[in-house]
Amino acid sequence: MRVPSAIPRTCAAWLRAAQGAGRDPPESAQRVADLLREQDERETVRRDREERRGHLVGGMVYLVVGVGLAVMIASVAAKPRVWTVGLIAGLIGLVLTAVGLFMGPRR
């Protein structure tokens, strides 16, 4: 049995010792281990969700900055095609947004 990292070391050591001696841990200890494992899994899902949201928000910001930069440079630049500098930020934003959209849960 994998003991989650959220379990304090003494409790984890006690569970391993009980299992190593060929004894089943008490039902209450098993329930505590199961609850802590579920809590650890929920925390992992929450962290993944926040990371995905961060990619989406960051991607949208970069995309808008790139478009704004391209429009501003196009309106003030004397040379043609200088506006393409805005594509750098825009493409970074596009990639970040795509990562956020297609990022799946880690398993």
Account of the 3D structure:
The chain is mostly helical. It has one domain. The protein is 74% helix and 0% strand. The protein is built from 3 helices and no strands. Helix 2 (27-76) packs antiparallel against helix 3. The protein starts with 8 loop residues before the first helix and ends in a 5-residue tail after the last helix. The mean pLDDT is 85.
Averaged pLDDT, please?
85
Largest sheet: none
Q: Estimate what percentage of residues fall within beta strands.
A: under 5%
Q: How many strands appear in the DSSP assignment?
A: 0
* Contiguous uncertain segments of 5+ residues: none
**Cα distance spanning the termini:** 18 Å
Order of SSEs, N→C? HHH
Q: Helical proportion?
A: over 70%
Which structural class do you get from the secondary structure elements?
mainly alpha
Radius of gyration: 25 Å
**Whole-number tally of structural domains:** 1
Shape: rod-shaped
